[in-house]
Amino acid sequence: AQVVLNDPGSVNALQSKLAAFFSNWQAVVHHINMAVTYLLLKTYMDSPSLVAGQGSVMHRQHIALSQALSGMVTGIMSRLQNMNDCSSFFTQIVLNQGLLVVWDSLLSTCGDELGMLEDMAVAIDMLEMVTFEIVSGRVFRTCLEGTPDTLNVLLIVPPDLVVAIPSALIGQRLSVVPCLFTQGVNENQFKSDWLGTSKFQDVINWKSFERLNLYVTRFLDNRDWYFESVLSGAKVALRAEANQLKTRVETYVELLSTALKSKKERNIDILTCAGQVCTLFDGIRLVSCKSAKDRTSMMTTLDAACYLINRFGMPAEKLLGTVSIMRSSGTRLQNCRKNIGEARYAFHPVQLQCFPKLLRPPDGTYGSATT
After folding, report:
1. What are phi and psi of 134, to 5 degrees?
2. 3-state SS string over 116-137?
3. Which of 272, 288, 307, 338 is nearest to 74 (CA)?
4. Which residues are 287's β-sheet partners?
5. SS3 state at 282
């Protein structure tokens, strides 16, 4: 097309023609892609290896599901052994909305860990189909019934523990609301962020945020009923505490949304805010990385210190000192010893420069390259 550069009308006409051309070009490419996809799928469906491939994928799903299920059941059993710490609110929220279970992943979106994260995301999504049922028995054990698509976990609890569990929870099929929030924090995540290959992390986090936000919205829409059933005849102070719960839940959900929108790299605020919401609902929280001893140790000690601040009023300025003590003198180094025979975190100084400051271990506690 010939264009007179000093003629605005001619320039506008060219812009219109180019827009129309690229619009048509995009439509053509889209149809080509659809046609190629159809041919590939048709070839695959006609392939004799299809059945074997489907079996392989299903087998992989079941293996990943068994790992996620084991972690969740361990968390639930631990909660049942400490029911004295749970309020009447816990009973109502589990009966009416399901048990909130939040996973914190510290896996990176790079190399083998990306594959681990993909398996983890699928397995945790499958847990949405799982129910659990508390029944009385002679010993503490579990039993599974049903299929992977309709799985029910029988939690068999001895009589001395059953008496501490609210009767409304006994014999009921209770649902779970699984959420996975992930944030890579090491040098591999630094590389993934730099290369722009961390989008899968955002997909997982936003999907879980929508699920968590729906859970919170249902609670807020029915909070008057919850408070009346839990606090019927309670003192004014308890009702004020219930209203404070609403405010805190809304605050942490907003902070979580802000953290997700910020696009900040290696942003552990995503994990801490999601964890706070889970704690407010008396939910189950699990933390993992690749080996569950190094990055996981950093995150669990940070969570424990935050819990001391939020639950017991520890001054916030003591946070760093508290996590330093937990990481150097607590049980986490002993966990390393049981795993690798040495009480050291498997970090090196250069690697730690990529870590958020709140997840760095104190000097003298790291240096082993064993994983």
Report:
1. -95, 125
2. HHHHHHHHHHHHHHCEEEEEEC
3. 288
4. 104
5. coil
Token pair recorded at residue 308: 């001391």
Record the tokens describing residue 42, joined without a space: 């048709």
Q: Report how far apart, in Å, the C-alpha atoms of 241 and of each of 37, 166, 351 are.
A: 56, 22, 44
Give the pLDDT confidence of 276-324 residue by residue, as tens digits. Answer: 999 989 899 999 999 889 999 999 999 999 999 988 899 999 999 999 9
Question: How far is the C-alpha of 54 from the C-alpha of 101, rounded, in Å?
Answer: 29
Q: Strand locations in 169-290, DSSP E?
A: 173-182, 284-288
User: In sequence order, what are the beta bridge partners of 150?
Assistant: 147
Q: Are 260 and 179 in contact (CB under 8 A)?
A: no
As a whole number of angstroms, the distance between CA 90 and CA 293 comes to 30
Cα separation, 51 vs 244, in Å, equals 55
What tokens appear for 41 in the block?
A: 């799928």
The tokens for 184 are 């890579």
Helix (H) or strand (E) holding 304: helix 295-312
- Work out whether strand 141-147 and strand 99-105 pair parallel, antiparallel, or are unpaired: unpaired
Alpha carbon 311 to its chain centroid, in Å, reads: 22
> Count H helices, E strands: the chain?
14, 6
Which is nearest to 145 in space by CA: 133, 158, 137, 157?
133
Encode pLDDT of 175-193 as tens digits.
999 999 999 999 999 888 8
The residue length of the chain stands at 371
Residue (of 311, 146, 254) closest to 154 by Cα position: 146
**Spatial contact of 106 and 295, defined as CB atoms under 8 Å apart:** yes
Nearest alpha-carbon partner for 293 in 329, 343, 363 = 343
Does residue 361 have a pLDDT over 60? yes
